[in-house]
Every structure is written in structure tokens, then in C-alpha cells.
Amino acid sequence: MAETSEKKIIAVLTATGTQGASVVRELLKDGKFAVRGLTRNPQSEKSKDLTQQGVEMVKADAGDIESLAAAFENVYGVYANTVWGILAAEGFDQKKTEVIEVQHGKNLVDAAKKAGVQHFVWSTLDGISDPYVYHFMTKHQINSFVAQSGIPNWTLLYTSCYYSNLCMPGIEFLKKDKDGHFFLDIPMPPDTPVDWFDATEVGKWVVPIFADPAKYNEQRVDAVSELFSPREKAKIIEKVTGVPVAVKEITTEEFFEPSFRASVFDEMWLNSACWVTGQFKRDHKQSKSIVPSPVTFEEFLKTDKLSRQFLGLDV
Length: 315
Known about the structure:
The protein has about 325 residues and is α/β, with parallel strands linked by helices. The chain folds into 2 domains: about 10-160, NAD(P)-binding Rossmann-like Domain (Rossmann fold, 3-Layer(aba) Sandwich), CATH 3.40.50; about 160-200 and about 225-280 and about 290-315, Alpha-Beta Complex (UDP-galactose 4-epimerase, domain 1), CATH 3.90.25.10. Helices cover about 45% and strands about 15% of the residues. Helix 2 links the parallel strand 2 and strand 3. The longest helix has 22 residues, at about 95-115.
């Protein structure tokens, strides 16, 4: 029998999202796998652009297991990421969003198992239940579906806080007061250490995982670049841009006051509590063994269009 030169297929969901687009980009750059991009809208401009780059774009929805089963046909590996924010933006409360996202994760795992997928990489977060961080716990619950699925190889990829949250619509840590002064509105004591990374780089961790399934089977992999506090973040912004940025001063005691929590979007307060209580931890040594030189926040600031425009640097 003649040897086949066909590449194994990696399916990426969602291929047009921040994480998915990075995984697609790095897989294409690596060239060892064929890429199948899953999206709810294959006719979007982002989808069409990926098609032109050689990605097979397929319509699929995490809420529709039949569409997933069809999309995973003949697929070797799956990179899966569900997005809490999309469901929350549709008007669901925290508990309802949790139920839906967990079901989406189960659908992904079940469809992958049914299709004979050999390696499932799940983008996840920590199981922090005190306080109960909904958008962490949803992904954590799906971990058990992955581990018990019977899929031959699986890997859990733990991501970190996005650099892009600085000016990301809906989060926007960087703000400007009525007098035109900039400040960081990160709801936590400003000296709290936080793990950060550039989410557009996540594919740099994913490609080595798919390339060496034996090494990363049943393993946790952390994707992280730096550890620094909001106060240090403000200093880095001023160092790179020359624009002074203040921080909001708050003590740990004030952070836990009911009145302060009530003044903040609840899921954001819960997210901050992960770092304030010291429960969010990343293995920087392990992470850098896979990606030795991840993008730093300084490097990110030099090219990020949203933050530079907001600061009045690129207008």
C-alpha cells in the first residue's frame, strides 16, 4: 500500500475568536497539520480570510451536538474553547450561563469521542469555589468530562489574564477621568500580583502539545507570560508610552466590604478575588519551557492599537 501524504486534521473552535485565531495561525505557520476552523458563521469576513489562508471553514455550534459531530469527522485533534462572555452578553444570568456553557463543553467532548478524535485540548480555568467564580467553575467542571471521556489523549490548557483586557470593549481596565487623566480601574488592591499573557499567542503553547501527544497526555499546561500588580502595570504603561497612569487605591479589607462588591460587576469582582485570595497560580517555569520568550506587556503596548489610540498616541 502506498504511503499517504495527507496531513492529520486539527479542528479549532472557535476559529475566529481570540484564542482560536491564534491556534489557527500557529498551526498554519507550523505546517504539519491541516486546519479545520469551526464557526457559527462561515460567511463572515474573518471566516473568508481564513479560507483564503487554506483553512477549511465549517459551520458548527457548541450548542448543536450534531453539527459538532459532522465537523469532527476525520479529525485527529480538537482545540476547544467556550466563551462565557458571549453567553453573558445574550442576557443570561450567572447560573444560567454556567448551565449552558457546561452543556456546550459536554457536547464538544461527546462529539469528539463519537467521531474518534485522538487528542482533545481543552482551554480551561481553575476550580475556585470560595468565592464561587462562575466563569472559572464552568470550565473546571468540563475538565472531568474531558478526563473521563475515553479520548486517547487529552490536555488541559490553563490560560491567564489577557493583556488586551486593558482596552477590550466590555472590560476596559484603562479609563480616563473628566479632567483627561488616565487611571487603571482594576477592582483589587493595586499591589496584588496577577498572572498575565497575550492571548493572541496561545497557539504557541498549543502546537507543541499536538506535536507530542505522549508528553502532554493527561497533563496540565499553563500559558503565562508575566506576574505583576496593577500598580506595576501602570508604571509599565508610563515607561513605554510616556503617559502617566494612576491606580485606584483600595485595601484588602475594603475589597471585601459588601458595598465595594456591590459597586463592581459581580463576575469581575469574583475574578479579582481569585488573585486577592492567592488562589490563582500559574507555573511560569513550566510555561516558559514550552514558550521561552512570550510577548511581554511592554512589547504588547508598542503594537496594541486600542490602547495606543485611547492614550492618544496613534490618532
